[in-house]
Specification:
- By secondary structure, the protein is an alpha+beta fold.
- Among the domains are: 77 residues, no CATH class; 130 residues, Up-down Bundle (Butyryl-CoA Dehydrogenase, subunit A, domain 3).
- The chain has 13 helices and eight strands.
- The strands form two sheets. The chain has a four-stranded mixed beta sheet.
- Strand 2 and strand 3 form a beta hairpin.
- Helix 8 packs antiparallel against helix 9, helix 10 crosses helix 11 and helix 10 runs antiparallel to helix 12.
- The longest helix is centred in the last third of the chain and has 29 residues.
């Protein structure tokens, strides 16, 4: 790695501080209009900032307790809006980008389906062209933010006769459209993080398609690989929430570190956390040196997810019986300057079993590392080149009804 973190008196840092002094507690639109929501984007949306300036802006916004745009509207800022910037029309960019960056219109990703999770290309939701509209019919699941989203980024099959990866297209869907039903999924923590989404003959204008027909797989995989360029603590839940450093600090403050077994385990987690922090610094250095992102992100997530589970498990375990009380915190209140639910130690623990499943399962990530980093033979997929319509079993009317009744939809 070869980079220098900008000094405290760096002119770029002072400029951001001056803006924050003149705009205390700025609204999301104000932050977006200043280019601070996505500083690495080109103007007028961003500042065409290099990685160092991105780091400066992220640090100064955090110091001023201004929620980052990627926390407020993660699907748009972290994953999908970049595709709109690159592949969308001027009309779509003007309509959607500023409200997304300002956090005024939340986005969700309508990707996974009951029979298409790890094998996303096997999705069955269809988009049939009728004049100047597509008619969407299908069923999505594990959709974060669908209950509050205004915009859904939908992947659907426009050409069933093409092989499964080639027959997909992507759309921006108004989540208030007739025919969309959102059903909550309540998890073991008692919270509603995910949803099922049913699309029954939802009409979407042709001009809401991103890119050309058949571009859906390329766009989806690009979006899933997108990571924000910023230097931050390696939080336990997908980069958010408590870190191993904070775990060790809490164990010292409460005296739990005095137990030798706890101390040994904490030391191992601290070393893991530092390794992950250095991997994040390497990614930051790569950005500074204009090195394109690659499959290294899969390796980082593959290591970070089980590490986060172990951090949270130890924090809960040292509480003893008190850890069984809902809302009980292992080290005082939830973290200062918290911007997400994962900053709450207790909630993060209850959510943590899912972090090795969401954003790529461990098995999928291991395949990516094996095939794209180590150069091992690719896993054989006998359906990859067949017309998709020949690879699926027809769904009966009875099975469709049973699925909706199970989800509580009539």
């Amino acid at each position: 790695m070869d980079f220098n973190v900008p000094d405290d008196d760096d002119p770029r840092r002072l400029e951001v501080r001056d803006w924050l002094a003149r705009n205390p507690k700025p609204a999301g639109r104000r932050v977006a209009e200043a280019g601070y929501a996505v500083p690495h984007w080109p103007q007028p949306w961003g500042l065409a900032a290099d990685p160092e300036l991105q780091l400066v802006i992220a640090e100064e916004l955090d110091r001023a307790n201004v929620p980052a745009a990627y926390h407020v509207n993660p699907v748009a800022v972290n994953n999908c809006a970049q595709s709109l910037l690159t592949h969308g029309t001027d009309e779509l960019r003007s309509r959607y980008l500023l409200p997304a960056l300002a956090g005024e219109e939340i986005w969700c990703m309508l990707f996974s389906e009951p029979s298409a999770g790890s094998d996303l290309a096997a999705l069955k939701t269809t988009a049939r062209r009728e004049g100047d509209h597509y008619v969407i019919k299908g069923h999505k699941i594990w959709t974060s933010l669908a209950e509050s989203a205004k915009v859904g980024v939908l992947v659907a099959r426009t050409d069933p006769a093409a092989p499964k990866h080639r027959g997909l297209s992507q759309f921006l869907v108004d989540m208030d459209s007739p025919g969309i039903t959102v059903t909550p999924i309540v998890d073991m923590s008692g919270a509603q993080e995910y949803n099922e989404v049913f699309l029954d003959d939802v009409r979407v204008p042709v001009n809401q398609r991103l890119g050309e027909e058949g571009d859906g797989w390329y766009l989806a995989t690009t979006q899933l690989q997108t990571e924000r360029v910023a230097l931050s603590k390696p939080g336990a839940v997908w980069g958010k929430g408590p870190s191993a450093r904070e775990l060790v600090r809490g164990l010292i403050e409460t005296g739990a570190i005095a137990e030798s077994l706890v101390r040994d385990e904490a030391a191992k987690l601290y070393v893991e956390g530092e390794a992950l922090r250095l991997l994040a610094l390497r990614a930051f250095s790569d950005g500074q040196n204009a090195k394109p992102a690659g499959p290294e992100g899969a390796a980082r997530k593959m290591l970070a997810a089980p590490h986060g589970q172990r951090v949270l498990e130890l924090a809960k375990r040292v509480q003893g019986a008190r850890g069984l009380i809902a809302g009980a915190q292992p080290f005082g209140a939830s973290r200062p300057g918290a911007h997400t639910v994962f900053d709450d130690w207790d909630y993060a623990f209850w959510f943590s079993p899912g972090i090795t499943l969401g954003v790529g399962t461990q098995e999928v990530l291991k395949n990516i590392v094996a095939e794209r980093v180590l150069g091992l033979p690719r896993e054989f997929d006998p359906t990859a080149k067949q017309p998709f319509s020949q690879t699926i079993e027809p769904e009966t009317a009875a099975s469709k009804t049973a699925g909706r009744e199970t989800a509580g939809v009539r």
